[in-house]
Design brief:
Elements: H1 3-22, H2 24-32, H3 34-53, H4 56-69, H5 74-81, H6 84-112, H7 117-149, H8 151-161, H9 168-173, H10 177-189
Helix pairs in contact: 1-7, 2-6, 2-7, 3-6, 4-6, 7-8
Length: 190
Amino acid sequence: MLLADWIVVGILAFFCLIGIWVGFARGLRFFTSGFFGIIIAIIVCYTLGGPIYKIGFIQDLLGKFITALTGKNTFCDILISIRIDLIVYYIALFIIVLILRLIIVKIVLAIADIDNVVISFIDRIFGVIFFAAVTLLFMLVAFWVINLIGGTTATTVTDAIAGSKLKLDWFYEHNPLMIIIQVIKMEVVL
């Protein structure tokens, strides 16, 4: 095993121990509150915004909104030209996602607070799984940033993880976060 493999195993073991100690519910509350919660809400809105936008009644509501603004005055025409309907749609979606996130976290916390050995054990097991997934996500974000930096930094990292037993080189080359950058680059070109 490479040094990079041992580093990842050490970090993963550390986060899994935190998962056992903290549990799923409290870990979920930590990673979905504050800054992390806003980032998660933005990613959910980015991911689900397009498919939800195509739903019929959403289209009807936004169409009625534009119809109400059409021909009122110059200010309303400016709002229509900057696609105020999409701005209002994504702000509303963001608020709905934040509210749903709060409700889901409250429900999970209420379940985890039940004083039962079985539920406590399940909470700890899911805590290990959750924190392992968080570790994987942090690794993917680190690989994503290294890929964005490029140059000798990216070359040094790819050389250091080549032939990894944990397939770190595969994760680096097939990072799903890079799809976001590719989509953004395609939209800029278009």
